[in-house]
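User: Okay, second chain of the day. Same drill as before: sequence in, structure tokens out.
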Amino acid sequence: MSGVNAKAKSGVLELSEETRDRLAELRALSKKTEAGDKGARGELRRLVRASSPEVIGRASDVARRAGQTLAHTAAGGDLLTEEALHAKLDYMRAEIAGEDPTPLEVLLTERVVSLWMLVTLLEALVATQYRRNVGDASERLSPSYVLQQSRILESATRRYLAAIRELARVRKLEAAVPAATGSFGRRGRVSPG
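Assistant: Same drill. Structure tokens below.
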């Protein structure tokens, strides 16, 4: 197993067994709520509020869900491609976050990864409009639509590059801060003892 995969499996980006179990419990309760069990909603609310920040963070991770939705869309029904894209997103998260990322680095990493998936999908969609041998003219999209899609791609690309720059800036600022003294270790984390 490569170093990055090992980090993804054992690092901050991988869920603990306790978190996975709690999420499964919450999902089951959520399904009961969706099925109309009125008492389940209150229990779900109580258990969510009593959950760890890791559980709440993963359950509310809209960016990760958006990336999964985009991967599903990009795969176009090809399950191998979809699974490979999910694995690629996980690999990218681990590689970009690095070892021992701060919460801000994790947040920016997720932003970079989700925007990479969006940009990649938009590039593929725009590129399909430039194929030569498209059937009849009714299958082609209007030039104004293609231009609009190109603008959306350009905007997404700018946001993607801005997220990369911001992550690099945060890391540069963290590297410039002298190591904290006392009971705080690397990057202001409390050291045991």
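Residues 1-60 form one domain.

User: Thanks, on to the next one.
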